[in-house]
Fold:
Amino acid sequence: MTLGENSSEYKRNEGGFTLRRGGDVVIKVTRKPSEQAEVPPLLPIAIPDTAQQTLMMNGFKLTADEAVKLQDKTAADPADLESRLQLLGYYGRNSIMQPALRKSQAELVCWWVNNYPEAAAHKQSNMHASIDPTGYMSAKKAWQKQASNYPENTAILRNAARFFLQSDRSIATEYLQRAQKLEPDNADLAAQLGQLYQLGLMTASGKERDELAKKALEQFELAIDKNAVPQAASSLLVSVTKAAFAAGAMDKAHEYAQQLLAEDDDDPADWNSGNATHQANIVLGRLALKQGKIEEAGKFLVAATAVE
Structure:
C-alpha cells in the first residue's frame, strides 16, 4: 500500500508493520505473539456437597428482609460462602415471580461459576433464557469460558450441562458427551445423559423422537449396569422402563415394569416406592392397550391411580 509519495511504502504483516521512505526503513513495529492467558487454579470449597444443598434449601425459606441482611454480609465479606449459598436458594425460588431480584441472581450465579465451577450448588442454580435473557447470557458466557479453560474436568462439564439443560440443550448434550468420553464408566453421567435425551422426547417427533428414545434407553441401561449406589436403583429403573416403552422395546418395557413392581413389594419404605408402582402400572397398562387387551389395561391403569 503506497502512502502519499511513491517513495513511501507501508507494509503490514502478521507481526506488525513497516514504513519505508526511499528505501530506508523509517518505522518498524513488531508485536510479540500474544501469550495464552494462564488458566487460574480451581478454588477448593470446604463445605460438603450435602451441606451446600441444605444451605440452599434454607434459602427457600428466607424473608425479603433476611435476604437483604445476607446481601449486606456478603458485600462486607465476599468469602462468606454460607450466605451466598442461602441467597442462591432464595433467588432461585423467588426470581421468577419477582423480576427485581433477577439482576442480583445473575450476578451471584456468575460469581459462583467464576469462582467455584465444581461446586455441588450448581445443581440448583439454573437460569432460563426466556425469563431473564440478559442474566442468562452473562452466565452462559461464564460457563462456556470455564468449560473451555478446563476441558477435561467432568465436574465442570456436568455442572455446565445442568445450566444449559432447559435453554440450550445442544450445548448440554455436547458437554455431557465430552464428559462421558473422559469417564465412560460413570453411572451418574450416563443417567444424566439419559435424562437429557428423555427430556427431548417432550418436543421431538418422528424419526428424531425415535432416535432420542433409543439413546435414552441405551444410557439408562448403561447407568444401571455401572450403578454402585443402591439408593439410585429405583429411580433409574423408573427411567429405563419409560425409555424402553418410548423406544418401542416392548419386551424390555414389560420386563422392567414387572421388576419395578417386584422391588416395590420388597422395599415398601423406599422413598420412590409410590412413584415406581405408579409408573410401572402405567407402562403395563399401555402395553396391554397396544395388544388389544382392554380389560387387562384397565386394571393396570386403575391400579396406577390408586397409588398414594
Summary: The chain has 13 helices and three strands. The first helix runs from residue 49 to 60. The beta strands are 8-13, 16-21, 24-30. Residues 49-163 form one domain.
